[in-house]
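Morning. Coffee machine broken again, so started the prediction first thing and wrote up yesterday's gels while waiting. Chain of 114 residues, entered below exactly as on the submission form.
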Amino acid sequence: QVQVVESGGALVQVGGSLRLSCAASGGMFSLLDMGWYRQAPGKQRELVAQIRTDDMSTYADSVQGRFSIARDNVKNTVYLQMNNLKPEDTAVYYCNSKFEYYPWGRGTQVTVSS
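Came back before lunch.
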């Protein structure tokens, strides 16, 4: 079954850290550029970090220097390390490939409390 399952979200205080995980199944993970997206209430989903098949990564300006994306092609998993969290990072976080190969998962809620 082709799917992704996100996990690791939580309620944290400003300045805290979280590590999100996204486990993919269905075969093509190692051939795909993967990304983490987020959607805050009342806002559109946005791409926050992307990692290519050659492990090159890019980040949205809003998270540059605070977030780090990594992948494990043996475990078919992509990670998002989030440090120095801010209230504006509060959102549901999703993962998917660059061209949405996977059906969107349920996401994982990250809430940053001040």
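The mean pLDDT is 96. Going to sketch it on the whiteboard this afternoon.
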